[in-house]
């Protein structure tokens, strides 16, 4: 078994969105040299914002994928679920034997297997990562489950840098299966909450419904913060969550399970953010979120149509 460097001194992020930026920030603070490439850099209107963010975090923004990953001890793929396959294939063309590629994207075990094949053809080592919580506010400390032949040695080096990882399998796909199966429940609860409380609010019955839920499931915060939290996750990240749930559906189909709930969850998440977009509504993290206000606005607009 080839060991990863005890100290990860050079890290490249493929994808510089919310997750990539936070991980990059943590790696810089831990003393690593960090480079990044994001496909948005090719768009003149988007590049200035990327460059400004990179400079503020002490990250080197490259104009090419090859430039970003060249010589890095570790390459972290942090793109959208729909771009994960393309990112792995493209990055593999520039990887060298001995480099490590960690795939943190929320995709099915089958997709992770294809990504591994692409990376390992280059002679680099592939490790899958299942990110088990939202990257903000954890940053580098977000819990990650790792899988692959080199998962244990990479986990040791990552944790030394400040990550919070745990190797769960030498086989690629197990870590992702844990995340995907968990998402059936987590994202499903979010979708059910949107549907349940939107209907309850329409009938003026939400207080009794929430009180009943609190009695049946005590300690979950149904009469306090839970409804706002669950619905805010859909309002803020519904598009991304819908994409992940389509990957969950593929995960289930791969073991001959009809993804009735996963598919419905993806449909509801997409429909909710579609409705917000059509009404010109945007989630603002700086404002206190109130699910009743958002639902009322959407209902009034629908009634007026």
Report the count of strand segments.
Answer: 8
Tally of domains: 2
Shape by Cα distribution: globular
Largest sheet features:
8 strands, mixed
Unreliable residue runs: none
Question: Roughly how much helix do the residues carry, as a percent range?
Answer: 40-55%
Secondary structural class: alpha/beta
Quickly name the level 1 CATH class of the largest domain.
Alpha Beta
Beta-strand residue fraction: 5-15%
Q: Encode the helix/strand succession as letters.
A: EHEHEHEHEHEHEHEHHHHH
- Average pLDDT figure: 95
CATH fold-type name of the largest domain:
Rossmann fold
CATH superfamily placement of the largest domain: NAD(P)-binding Rossmann-like Domain
Number of helices: 12
In the sheet with the most strands, the strands line up as: 3-2-1-4-5-6-7-8
Distance between the termini: 64 Å
Architecture per CATH nomenclature, i.e. the level-2 architecture of the largest domain: 3-Layer(aba) Sandwich
Q: State Rg.
A: 21 Å
What features would you describe in this structure?
Helix 4 links the parallel strand 4 and strand 5. The protein is built from 12 helices and 8 strands. The longest helix is centred in the middle third of the chain and has 29 residues, at 174-202. An 8-stranded mixed sheet has the order 3-2-1-4-5-6-7-8, with helices on both faces. It folds into 2 domains: 10-172, Rossmann fold (3-Layer(aba) Sandwich), CATH 3.40.50; 180-304, N-(1-d-carboxylethyl)-l-norvaline Dehydrogenase, domain 2. Helix 8 (174-202) packs across helix 11 (260-278). By secondary structure, the protein is of the alpha/beta class.
